[in-house]
């Protein structure tokens, strides 16, 4: 029988091979000395005209590898693709996680602009999932000239007001459904969260990459649910859309020393107001989305319901909004890969014309 280590190595190699077919893995160091690892494949040149390039922003608890189905499909269709591990994730740098200021959206936004410059890219189509949707939105707020279109997946536009009222969200959802939708935010801000997640990675993986998204608000989202699940070390089988290669690669990345703590920083910055001064300084015109906007939501997503996306995004979409609600959960890029790839291809084709 092959050892679990050998199986993990084979699974990681399989996922790495799938990524390599579509892209090249590269490294980039910013002017401030921060290193990013990213996947890149340039757009195909047709008679002197290139198709647009997509810049992907992953969410939590993800890495660039969660975009593997999209990178392969779009590269094959001739589009350019660029997918970094964001700061604090995967193989990119992880500054001191207690220095929340080092992870500010304005800092990461400037890094992304430098990365585009390094690859000789002017404008790109931004695609953001989960917290990556907010990272993409802030990159647009700070550098609107670098984006020709924005695609929000699972999470809509978070206007840079500097304040997210999680208490109000939890009170409203608790009254409406009996479950506090964002109760897990409190756990992620607790001093025990890093160790508890690190010591129960398989349980955490099966909680977030769950087969049944319709119960995630009960199993993970509600106050105390995530902690109880990890303390019991509960695991469930892989979702039918997931792969063992993806799981083992994820475990390999998040089992590295110091990997979990910085990944929680988006939640911690949101509740400590770290980004508020930067958000307040964004020019009002840049807070409006003056490019075409697409939203892709999951009708079965109970952590970040797809139905909410239009409500928070449409008031700021000055150039129109195209909406897709897919029959899926939170991980649409995997669960609904073909549909997502078709939507992105259409978005790229609209820009190319």
The portion of residues forming beta strands comes to 5-15%
Largest sheet: 8 strands, mixed
What is the spatial order of strands in the main beta sheet? Answer: 1-2-6-5-7-8-9-10
Judging by the overall fold, what is the CATH architecture? Answer: 3-Layer(aba) Sandwich
Q: Which residue ranges are poorly predicted, with pLDDT under 50 across at least 5 consecutive positions?
A: 1-14
CATH superfamily: Alpha/Beta hydrolase fold, catalytic domain
Going by helix content, strand content and strand pairing, the class is alpha/beta
Q: How helical, in percent, are the residues?
A: 40-55%
In total, the number of strands is 10
The succession of helices and strands, N to C, reads HEEEEEHEHEHEHHHHHHHHHHHEHEHH
Q: Gyration radius, to the nearest Å?
A: 19 Å
Domain AB hydrolase-1: 52-336
Signal peptide: 1-22
InterPro entries: AB_hydrolase_1, AB_hydrolase_fold, Epox_hydrolase-like
Protein name: Alpha/Beta hydrolase protein
General description of the model:
- Residues 1-22 form the signal peptide.
- InterPro entries: AB_hydrolase_1, AB_hydrolase_fold, Epox_hydrolase-like.
- Belongs to the AB hydrolase superfamily. Epoxide hydrolase family.
- Keywords: Hydrolase, Signal.
- This protein has one domain (4-352): Rossmann fold (3-Layer(aba) Sandwich), CATH 3.40.50.
- The protein has 353 residues and is α/β, with parallel strands linked by helices.
- Helices cover 45% and strands 15% of the residues.
- It has helices at 4-22, 68-76, 105-118, 131-142, 166-177, 184-188, 193-198, 201-208, 216-221, 225-231, 244-254, 260-263, 265-272, 276-281, 284-287, 307-313, 332-335, 337-352, and strands spanning 24-29, 35-41, 45-46, 49-50, 53-57, 80-84, 124-129, 147-153, 293-298, 321-326.
- The protein is globular and about 60 Å long.
- 46% of the residues are buried.
- The chain has 18 helices and ten strands.
- The strands form two sheets. An eight-stranded mixed β-sheet has the order 1-2-6-5-7-8-9-10, sandwiched between helices. A two-stranded antiparallel ribbon has the order 3-4.
- α1 crosses α11, α2 (68-76) packs across α18 (337-352) and α3 crosses α4.
